[in-house]
Sequence to fold (217 residues):
Amino acid sequence: MSTHIYLTRHGETVWNTKKLMQGWKDSPLTDRGIKQARLLSERLSKVSLDAIYSSTSNRAVHTAEIIKGEKSLEVIKCDNLRELSFGSWEGKTFEVNEKDSPEEWLSFWETPHLFSNDTVESFVKVQERMVKTIESIVNQHSDGNLLIVTHSIALKLLMDYFEKNSLENLWSTPPIPSTSLTLVKINNEFNEVVYKYDTSHMKDQKNQNVLTGALVQ
Fold:
């Protein structure tokens, strides 16, 4: 018996387009973000989902509700699926944060495994809470199909855990596109990443995320 977990990042938001750092603070989905969620809803329309879980951030909940569509499921909201908290960096551009906190900013990018800041949540802490939360959810659904709507860095850290990648190499992989789809198969013996960050449902939409997009979620 296996649990199939479909993981996605929320749709594009207003702050994403302005390249403002967005962790626990929030901004609404753009029209493009809504369309992204609808396309993913179409892709998942024939998947028999047993539960839908979402970060409590409005951008994730809105995405989850759109994907849910007419399915007779309640979106289960979970604080621990939220993005990394950027603390005093929230709502500011990369340039401003680099100027205000040059050493910590450099560590954030160059030595994420050692990163420490008085207000910004550590990568280690986010990875730990994401892993524990997914384990808890899977324990409640020993067999079935689940959808998890979360955020870019949170998802990247979770996938690094599944794939046994070192936190030191966090930024060695490309940013995660909005509403891309990842499927992980979990049972008592092993975790299998079936596919990740797939955007085949986006059709003619050109994903315009760049590296900064991974950090303004």
Summary: Residues 207-214 have pLDDT under 50 and may be disordered. The two ends are 34 Å apart (CA to CA). Strands lie at 3-9, 51-55, 75-78, 144-150, 181-186, 191-198.
